[in-house]
Amino acid sequence: MGYLSDDHRWMGAALALASRGRGRTAPNPSVGCVIVANGRVVGRGWTQDGGRPHAEAMALRQAGAAATGATAYVTLEPCAHLSARGPACTDLLIAAGVARIVAAMGDPDPRTNGSGFARARDAGIAVVEGVREAEARGMIAGFLMRQASGRPYVTLKLATSLDGCIAMADGQSRWITGAQARAHTHLERSRHEAILVGRGTLVADAPRLDVRLAGLAARSPRRVLLSRRPEPGWEHVAAPQAIAGLAGVDHLMVEGGAGAAAAFLGADLVDRLLLYRAPVLIGRGRAALGDIGLARLADAHGRWRLADARALGSDRLEVYERG
């Protein structure tokens, strides 16, 4: 194989490693690194909980002397700034003697932002940029949103009937969707630092909002309540815009109910939609959304782009991102 096909394949492995840290590394991005020598992986790493060690440091420690002359595949430009928490990854790669760095994208953090690549090139390392960049950007969407807008990346989850209801008229909502869709929701929870509901959901359902999947229980997110008044045992925001102040939260999942969903949509603070639809009709039930401030039907078009769709048992999942 040539460099292009090999680079694409090995970057896929680095992206898979990066996914392991999603929701656990804020305020650092979750990065993956694979070190390859003579067509064989000699080191691999991903950003650890809390942001350290970095992926490159973990992979280089595993590779040892085999890193000399090897290619390092990283999902983000190696950091180049000094930190009290550890050395710059660019310096570690240079010291290890890697011959080549293949990166999915540059780091927008102004402390690095191109200087990692420049320093590596000055040291005689060949640098390739932009391999599977779109996938890498999706992996660290929360970090990029914090850098650009100072707030978390927001995913809104809705589980509805075919006719757009989230509950019966009397409030019964367990369960509209089946076991596979609910398991997927728990997987999504594990990829977020925090999960938010409104007071109506708190009162009606007393939700646990934890992750109930084998091996992932420790990844249960922090619980946040959208309400005018705090609640013991919950973090609290009084308005959607206040999520900017949630320290250590780069990925926020909004899970209920109709009022909270409408508030975030009305504030234009939803970046991704998870729409689970069950093959049931409820009729006179509770609508999935309240008023989102839409004045003209024309304004609703062009807002969302279908990014993924799949069957989950008898249910269907559709994932939409900003258009």
Automatic annotation (TrEMBL):
Binds 1 zinc ion. One of its GO terms (biological process) is riboflavin biosynthetic process. The active site is at E56 (proton donor). NADP(+) binds at A159, W175, T201, D205, G257, A258, G259, A260, A261, A262, A263. Its cofactor is Zn(2+). It catalyses: 2,5-diamino-6-hydroxy-4-(5-phosphoribosylamino)-pyrimidine + H2O + H(+) = 5-amino-6-(5-phospho-D-ribosylamino)uracil + NH4(+); 5-amino-6-(5-phospho-D-ribitylamino)uracil + NADP(+) = 5-amino-6-(5-phospho-D-ribosylamino)uracil + NADPH + H(+). Its EC number is 3.5.4.26, 1.1.1.193. Pathway: Cofactor biosynthesis; riboflavin biosynthesis; 5-amino-6-(D-ribitylamino)uracil from GTP: step 3/4; Cofactor biosynthesis; riboflavin biosynthesis; 5-amino-6-(D-ribitylamino)uracil from GTP: step 2/4. GO terms for molecular function: 5-amino-6-(5-phosphoribosylamino)uracil reductase activity; diaminohydroxyphosphoribosylaminopyrimidine deaminase activity; metal ion binding. Keywords: Hydrolase, Metal-binding, Multifunctional enzyme, NADP, Oxidoreductase, Riboflavin biosynthesis, Zinc. Residues 5-120 form the CMP/dCMP-type deaminase domain. Zn(2+) binds at H54, C79, C89. Substrate binds at S173, R189, L209, R212, E255. InterPro entries: CMP_dCMP_dom, Cytidine_deaminase-like, DHFR-like_dom_sf, Eubact_RibD, RibDG_C, Riboflavin_Biosynth_HTPR. CDD domains: Riboflavin_deaminase-reductase. Converts 2,5-diamino-6-(ribosylamino)-4(3h)-pyrimidinone 5'-phosphate into 5-amino-6-(ribosylamino)-2,4(1h,3h)-pyrimidinedione 5'-phosphate. In the C-terminal section; belongs to the HTP reductase family. This is Riboflavin biosynthesis protein RibD. It comes from Sphingomonas carotinifaciens.
